[in-house]
Amino acid sequence: MTRAVVPGSFDPPTLGHFDVITRAADVFQEVLIAVVQNPSKTPLFTAEERVAMLRDVAAEWSNVEAEAFEGLLVDFARERSAAVIVKGLRAMSDFEYELQMAQMNHHLSGVHTLFLPTSPEHAYLSSSLVKDVARLGGSLDGLVSAAVAAQLKERYS
Ligand code: PNS
């Protein structure tokens, strides 16, 4: 039984995140979405809110769960007996930083990171751009789920 951790800020989760989570759920027996409690920037949504949004989606699969974590990702991965970290890659611009994190995480713990490419139709999506669009009243169709769009609209109303 291989358990994979899919970590991130998910502030908010986008359709690009869901795409990576779906792909990970196709490949691994168990997927644990790891929501960082305190991202470097002050989040728009609390960790509890982000976990709830992800659990909504995770309910579609029997092998996906979501949980918040604090501290080092690799400590959380080991506590939860996860053998691998899965990260989505949108473009080459993601690669340099993701490679650095993967190497640091391996150095710290020996835990491997696997990269999954996002589908091209989601390649331009990011949580920060989605927040900008929401804040300025743009359409969120095709960017986030209807449930996440409703929460974004409420937050910025
Ligand atoms: O969605 P993001 O913001 O790109 O996710 C970044 C995340 C949560 C994966 C990264 O910041 C992280 O792993 N944070 C936990 C602290 C940690 O382990 N830092 C060392 C990583 S090399």
Give a structural overview.
- This protein has 157 residues and is an alpha/beta fold.
- It has one domain: 3-Layer(aba) Sandwich (Rossmann fold).
- The protein has six helices and five strands.
- It has a five-stranded parallel sheet, with helices on both faces.
- Helix 3 packs across helix 4.
- Bound molecules: 4'-phosphopantetheine.
Overall geometry: globular
Strands, total number: 5
Structural class of the helix and strand makeup?
Answer: alpha/beta
Biggest sheet features? 5 strands, parallel
| C-alpha Rg (nearest Å) | 15 Å
The CATH class: Alpha Beta
Mean pLDDT: 95
What is the straight-line distance between the termini? 45 Å
Oligomeric organization of the protein chains: single chain
Q: Give the amount of beta strand, in percent.
A: 15-25%
Q: Helicity, in percent?
A: 40-55%
In N-to-C order, the SSE pattern is EHEHEHEHEHH
Low-confidence stretches are none
Bound molecules: 4'-phosphopantetheine
